[in-house]
Write a structure and sequence with these properties.
The complex is a heterodimer of chains A (about 290) and B (about 450). With about 290 residues, chain A is mainly alpha-helical. Chain A contains 13 helices and 2 strands. Chain A is flat. The chains are: A mainly alpha (about 290), B alpha/beta (about 450).
């Protein structure tokens, strides 16, 4: 009996002991910085205060960044999800050489963000970029692109969509490959058309993959930083000043760690809310499947 | 068991949270040790190691003939009690970030810090720099130019004396002028060209050599295009101030008539194709080097580089605005050097700072570079020395002593320069001047709130 008890304790404790090193690392390098970031937005000169948040919400830079971030994501997330899904549908075809297209579409993800932004900056260059050269050749006026406050955000959306869609396409492709082809055959026999098949079979069965892509895509786009840092630095006129970039400026240019922490906290809350809503609307019940 | 583990995890989380918010950079810190004797460090028996955090490349510190190498070599040869180790960053932005992060954390890793001159108030306000009035006499401080001394001080205390200074000259491409058959009229510091004249000359050259603008010849380029350091000379040259006397107010300053007029003038030149649109500060010099820019407003420090890249150029003094000839303004300030408030060896650090700002180190700086001194004694020699001192340095020395305008003296210079850099870009990109100024004022007024 004693041996059984000892064995029971050992078998319960031992797995946790094996997990302890990883747990300590996660606690030190993940949980502690997260907790400190969350807390530092509430402490000023050693005292607990909400003044940092009060100043933040009165700050036109912050409110502008918040609005730009929401606007950016309202356009980018659905756009990327739809395009990636369509690409997934296309490359899931059983055609000779389809693998080449899968590689081509995925290759944009393999390029580093830095190189991708540099390439697109050259294309969008006002003075001698490819796009303006083509417009001038066609007799059309040149465009500001990254220099225009009305076009700069769309240019950033184009860059991030071009970069990211190939990656999300892979998830959709994987999900599509898991759908039983017999379902499509049955649907065809029953006289279902392409749209019927798409909306009544494919989309419902892809709901979990769509949910995953939406959640992951939301997180990635809400935290977007590199293209802004490299190309527009938040301009022109704050039109691309996403919240992440504003937080970076606070922390590393203005040495205002508290303000940066407060912004990051708000950003995380927004991500949590959006993901919660996505789960609510997209998480299908077992019965529907 | 599950309850036990849950309790342990909860306790750990509580422990982590209570550890937060303990260190606050805004709590005033006392210096680690104080001493009124600037050379006390040399009287110790053991050699003292100090660390200098600065900007530069490996070549700057290892190759003979490079100023920092020569300064350190001379310093170590002149005494054996203090040894200087160097941590350097080639990219100034990296240096600024290291300073922000490490000094904010209260590190004593560094003793001497190279400080970008407009950041002295900010670092002093943050309590990162040691006040060093005790290490300098009044007579020594009087040798610095008024602007250099004012820049080195904050709230009446000396924090970071100037290593060197800067100024501007107007360069022009003589080959393009010659091909266009244009000669600049006679001009000097008492009879300067005006900005309208310069724009007119530039437009003429463009009309004659590049009428359809296919060759990409621009009229006027700025060395630091879109940056506060250089661009603010335009409104300053119309009598516009940089910032309010309190160091925070921008309402009534940035939207004053000189600012509106200067930005409107600049935008009109961009719209006319005389000033370029869309190029970045790093690209601007290449336009002049490649013979694509007629005029180039350059820092003095850039002239030696220009001389290596192009030989068909000449220079003159910075222009004035018509009717504002008595208000010509030139930028100033470069690098200063201060002591980390948490330094373990402030006396040794102060000895090195004195060497680099007033001692042999400062003289060596101008033997090995074409930088501008911040000291009246050295500047005065440059102005008088017509034989050995290059003409551009003579012009720059005159400007430093007579027309230099300090950059905005404010603890929020980071926010100020970020907002104004964006403002200059927005104006260059064609946005409405008054709307852009109002947006900048709103942004800055909000950003400065935390300092009030």
């Amino acid at each position: 009996m004693n041996n059984m008890k000892k064995h029971s304790v050992y078998s319960t404790v031992f797995p946790y002991l094996l997990l302890l090193p990883a747990g300590v690392l996660v606690a030190v390098f993940k949980l502690y910085p997260i907790a400190q970031t969350l807390a530092s937005g509430f402490f000023e000169k050693g005292n607990f205060t909400l003044d940092i948040y009060r100043r933040l919400f009165r700050d036109p830079n912050f409110t502008n960044s918040l609005w730009i971030t929401i606007k950016f994501n309202l356009i980018t997330i659905p756009l990327q999800v739809v395009i990636s899904f369509c690409l997934g549908l296309l490359v899931s075809s059983r055609l000779r050489g389809i693998g080449i297209f899968r590689v081509l579409f995925f290759s944009t993800f393999a390029i580093s963000t830095t190189i991708a932004v540099l390439i697109w900056e050259k294309l969008f260059n006002f003075n001698n970029g490819l796009f303006n050269s083509m417009l001038i050749f066609a007799g059309l006026p040149s465009q500001g692109f990254l220099l225009s406050k009305t076009q700069a955000l769309m240019c950033i959306i184009v860059i991030t969509t071009w970069k990211g869609c190939g990656y999300w396409m892979i998830f959709f492709l994987s999900g599509l490959k898991n759908i039983d082809p017999g379902l499509y055959e049955s649907a065809m026999l029953d006289g279902a058309g392409v749209l019927d098949t798409l909306f009544r079979i494919t989309l419902p069965l892809m709901r979990r993959v769509i949910l995953f892509v939406c959640v992951a895509n939301t997180t990635a786009n809400m935290l977007l930083f590199a293209p802004i840092q490299m190309s527009t630095q938040g301009g022109p006129q704050g039109s691309t000043n996403l919240l992440m970039y504003e937080a970076y400026k606070s922390a590393f240019k203005y040495a205002d760690q508290q303000r940066a922490s407060a912004m990051i906290t708000i950003l995380v809350l927004i991500i949590v809310v959006i993901c919660f809503l996505q789960f609510k609307f997209l998480n299908s019940s077992e019965v529907e499947e | 068991m599950k309850k036990y583990i849950t309790a342990v995890l909860a306790a750990s989380l509580c422990f982590l949270l209570t550890a937060c918010g303990n260190s606050d950079k805004t709590i005033p810190r006392e210096p680690v040790s104080t001493s009124s004797a600037g050379t006390a460090a040399r009287e110790t028996k053991e050699p003292i190691e100090i660390t200098w955090l600065t900007t530069g490349t490996e070549e700057d510190f290892t190759v003979p003939g490079k100023v920092n190498y020569e300064c350190l070599k001379d310093y170590h040869n002149s005494q054996d009690k203090i040894h200087v180790n160097v941590e350097y960053y080639a990219n100034q932005s990296d240096l600024f970030e290291v300073i922000q992060m490490k000094l904010a954390a209260g590190t004593s890793e560094y003793d001497v810090i190279s400080v970008d001159s407009p950041m002295v108030p900010a670092y002093a306000y943050q309590n990162w720099l040691l006040p060093i009035d005790d290490y300098f006499t009044e007579r020594e401080l009087a040798d610095f130019t008024d602007t250099a001394l004012e820049n080195a001080m904050y709230d009446g205390k000396l924090y970071a004396p100037a290593l060197q200074n800067s100024s501007m000259v107007l360069c022009y491409n003589t080959k393009l002028m010659e091909e266009a058959g244009i000669t600049l009229r006679e001009n000097d510091v008492d009879n300067r060209l005006t900005w309208d004249e310069v724009a007119a000359y530039a437009a003429l050259v463009q009309e004659k050599l590049d009428p359809d603008r296919t060759k990409g010849i621009t009229g006027i380029e700025f060395n630091q295009i879109g940056r506060v350091y250089q661009m603010n000379l335009l409104p300053n040259s119309m009598g516009g101030a940089q910032i309010g006397d309190d160091g925070f107010t921008v309402e009534g300053i940035l939207n004053s008539q000189p600012w509106v007029d200067a930005l409107t003038w600049y935008q009109s030149q961009v719209n006319a194709g005389i000033c370029s649109r869309g190029i970045k500060p790093l690209e601007a010099p290449d336009y002049f080097y490649s013979g694509k820019a007629v005029f180039y407003v350059a820092t003095v420090g850039a002239i030696s580089t220009i001389e290596k890249k192009i030989d068909t150029f000449d220079y003159t003094c910075v222009p004035a605005f018509t009717y504002f000839e008595d208000k010509v303004a030139t930028p100033c300030g470069s690098w200063n050097i201060g002591i980390n408030i948490d330094s373990q060896c402030p006396d040794a650090a102060a000895d090195f700072v004195r060497y680099m700002t007033l001692g042999r180190g400062n003289e060596l700086r101008f033997e090995f570079t074409s930088q501008l001194p911040a000291r009246n004694s050295l500047l005065g020699e440059m102005v008088k020395d017509t034989e050995d001192t290059p003409r551009y340095l003579q012009i720059a020395a005159y400007e430093a002593m007579n027309t230099a305008v300090l950059r905005a003296k404010t603890p929020g210079f980071g926010e100020y320069s970020a907002a104004l850099d964006s403002m200059w870009e927005d104006v260059r990109n064609g946005n409405d001047v008054e709307e852009t100024l109002q947006m900048t004022i709103r942004t800055l007024s909000s950003a400065m709130e935390k300092y009030r």
